[in-house]
Amino acid sequence: xxxxxxxxxxxxxxxxxxxxxxxxxxxxxxxxxxxxxxxxxxxxxxxxxxxxxxxxxxxxxxxxxxxxxxxxxxxxxxxxxxxxxxxxxxxxxxxxxxxxxxxxxxxxxxxxxxxxxxxxxxxxxxxxxxxxxxxxxxxxxxxxxxxxxxxxxxxxxxxxxxxxxxxxxxxxxxxxxxxxxxxxxxxxxxxxxxxxxxxxxxxxxxxxxxxxxxxxxxxxxxxxxxxxxxxxxxxxxxxxxxxxxxx
Length: 247
Fold this sequence. Notes:
CATH topology: Nucleoside Triphosphate Pyrophosphohydrolase
Helix content: 10-25%
Distance between the termini: 30 Å
Shape: globular
Structural class: alpha+beta
Number of domains: 1
Order of helices and strands: EHEEHHEEEEHHEEEHHHE
CATH superfamily: Nucleoside Triphosphate Pyrophosphohydrolase
CATH class: Alpha Beta
Largest sheet: 5 strands, mixed
Radius of gyration: 17 Å
CATH architecture: Alpha-Beta Complex
């Protein structure tokens, strides 16, 4: 059973109207989430080579995605000492995929010196440490970049609604550690640890439209996740920093 975050998402106006609106207005969206739209993401080409920077807002508009705009991202999977996977349910305030269940943490490295560092994907791992703190309240010292295993990259595209979507090359980061959690309710509606069997049940429920799962988590779960999960103590064999899996 997922644990709801301490406070509800009060004052959130939903996105249903967005699909019908030709011009992009953020007036109806959550104020805190709108502020994050000014963050600068790292623009890349299809081979994950840096070509510039643009705002989170521009990177997530379907009108730009349709023109090929692509940015760098990451997905963190934290497993506890019992080998259960920490899931989060995105808050209703989120602009893309509100209320959807997903892996532990998904976000973007920013166009800053520390998060642009490409050697050993250090910039991406620093960004992951930052967002684990911001979203889940995990103390920075509890999950350091060197404790994250960078497995591989996945390139995917998905629409959230008529206006917003995702188009990312996503770095997959695995961590096995017991951590302290204090989720931000503006980011996370609920969270839970699941076994493989429990996740399989959730995936079946999603197929029956009984709950919603983010498209990237669904893709990863249907392809690689369970094999990696079976080999948490021996992940080196799956590390592939050359190939980008197109999904």
